[in-house]
Specification:
The chain is mostly helical and 298 residues long. The protein contains twelve helices and six strands. The relative contact order is 0.16.
Length: 298
C-alpha cells in the first residue's frame, strides 16, 4: 500500500516554489517566460494575452497529452499562423482537412485526437462563445468544473464537451490563463508526471506496491492547493515543477544538480518508469520501491 507523507510534501514543494520566487539555482536560468512553451511559442500574427492568443492557448492545451509539449506548441503556432481560418469562431474544419494539417505540421497526437480537436473547437465556440475564460466562470476548483461540464454535456445531449481533455489539462489551461486574469480558481498546477515523479523521488510517497497516475493525481491535488497558496501572486510560479522536471530531473544522472536543485538534499535520484514487459509502453503507474538511476557522481 502506498501512502502520502503530507508534511514532507509541503516541505518539498514549498522549497521548489520558494526557489522559483527567489530565482535561485536552476530557476535563475530557467523560468516560465524563458522556457515555458506557452511563452516561447505562439502564432506570430497574435499579441501576447490577446483574445486570439488565449483562444489558441486553449486549443493547444487541450491537445497537450501524451506528446512532446515543446514540439506541440511550436508546430501548433506554425499551423495557426499559416492557416488563419482556424482562429475563426464558428468555422469548423473537416476531419480530412485537419488530418492533412496535422501531418503537414508534424503534430503527433494520440489516435483519435484530430477528431477530438474539431469537437473541442466546436463546443468551445458553440457553448462558450469561443472564450476560454468562460470555461471557468462557474467553478472554483477542478472538481466543480468537471461536474459543470458533465451537466452541460447532459443538457446538450452530447457525450462529452471536450473529448480527451481531463482534469490535468484544465489545470494546465487555468495555469496559462491566470497569467492574464485572476480566475479565482484553486487548481492551477497540473498534477502531471513531473509532480508525481518529484513526489516519488523525494520520499513523499511511502510504502510498497503501485498506484495509478489518476488516483495519485486526485490524492495530491488538495495538498498542492495548500502549499501553493503562498505563491498565488508569484508570476509564473505554477510552472516551477515543470521547469524543475524538464531541466533538472531529466539531467540529474548526467549533470551535477546539487547547487541547482532546491530539493537535491531530499531527493534520492531519478528512476525509470514501470513499463509493460512485452510492449514496452508505460503502464501509467508509480511502483515502489523505485527502480532508481544514480545521481550524477554517485
Amino acid at each position: 500500500m502506498i501512502t502520502i507523507n503530507k508534511t514532507l510534501f509541503h516541505e518539498v514543494f514549498g522549497l521548489i516554489f520558494d526557489g522559483y520566487a527567489a530565482r535561485t539555482g536552476i530557476f535563475s536560468e530557467h523560468h516560465a517566460t524563458t522556457v515555458g512553451p506557452q511563452h516561447v511559442y505562439r502564432p506570430r500574427r497574435v499579441q501576447q494575452g490577446s483574445v486570439d492568443h488565449v483562444y489558441w492557448l486553449a486549443l493547444v492545451a487541450m491537445s497537450d497529452r501524451r506528446t512532446n509539449s515543446t514540439m506541440l506548441y511550436k508546430n501548433f503556432a506554425k499551423m495557426f499562423d499559416r492557416n488563419p481560418s482556424l482562429f475563426v469562431r464558428g468555422k469548423f474544419p473537416t476531419l480530412k482537412r485537419m488530418t492533412t494539417l496535422f501531418r503537414q505540421y508534424q503534430i503527433a497526437v494520440p489516435v483519435g485526437d484530430i477528431a477530438f480537436f474539431i469537437e473541442r473547437k466546436r463546443h468551445l465556440d458553440t457553448y462558450f462563445g469561443g472564450d476560454p475564460f468562460a470555461l471557468f466562470a462557474s467553478a472554483k476548483n477542478i472538481d466543480e468544473l468537471m461536474i459543470h461540464f458533465k451537466k452541460l454535456a447532459k443538457q446538450y445531449r452530447i457525450k462529452t464537451l471536450f473529448p480527451g481533455a481531463k482534469e490535468k489539462i484544465f489545470c494546465l489551461l487555468a495555469m496559462f490563463l491566470r497569467e492574464f486574469e485572476d480566475l479565482g480558481f484553486a487548481d492551477v498546477i497540473p498534477i502531471d508526471v513531473w509532480v508525481q515523479s518529484i513526489a516519488a523521488s523525494t520520499g513523499v510517497l511511502e510504502g510498497e506496491g503501485y498506484i495509478k497516475f489518476q488516483k495519485l493525481e486526485q490524492s495530491l491535488r488538495p495538498a498542492m492547493q495548500e502549499v501553493f497558496k503562498k505563491h498565488l501572486n508569484t508570476d509564473g510560479a505554477a510552472n516551477a515543477t515543470w521547469v524543475l522536471g524538464k531541466f533538472g530531473c531529466t539531467h540529474c544522472h548526467r549533470r551535477d544538480m546539487e547547487t541547482l536543485c532546491p530539493v537535491y538534499h531530499l531527493c534520492q535520484g531519478p528512476f525509470t518508469r514501470t513499463r509493460h514487459k512485452v510492449s514496452g509502453k508505460h503502464l501509467g503507474v508509480i511502483e515502489l520501491p523505485l527502480n532508481r538511476l544514480p545521481k550524477h557522481g554517485t
